[in-house]
Amino acid sequence: MIEIIALFHIFIPHLSATTIRQLYRVVFALLAMSGRVTMLNISRWTL
Fold first, then answer.
1. What is the pLDDT of residue 29?
2. Calpha distance 24→4 (Å, rounded)
3. pTM above threshold 0.90
4. CA angle, 27 as apex, 13 and 38 as ends, to 5°?
5. 27-36: pLDDT as tens digits
6. ∠ CA 15-25-46 to the nearest 5 degrees?
7. DSSP codes of every residue in 1-47
8. Phi and psi at residue 44, in whole multiples of 5°?
9. In 10 A of CB 20, how many CB atoms?
């Protein structure tokens, strides 16, 4: 997980703070999902 966060630090100078915050939330949610992580499961998320 730390490696993924380290990769996002590359994008920080090029993206807005809001976009980076949203990406962090998506990555943490993907890593926290149990079972099979499929595009269908991800598409069921709602805000």
1. 78
2. 10
3. no
4. 135
5. 777 778 777 8
6. 110
7. -HHHHHHHTTTGGGS-HHHHHHHHHHHHHHHH--S---HHHHHT---
8. -80, -10
9. 15
Cβ atoms of 8 and 20 within 8 Å: the answer is: yes
Q: Provide the residue count of the chain.
A: 47
Tokens of 10: 């590359």
Contacts of 41 (CB under 8 A, 6+ apart): 33, 35
Structure token digits, residue 38: 């499929």
Residue with tokens 């598409």: 43
Which tokens is 29 given? 């949610």
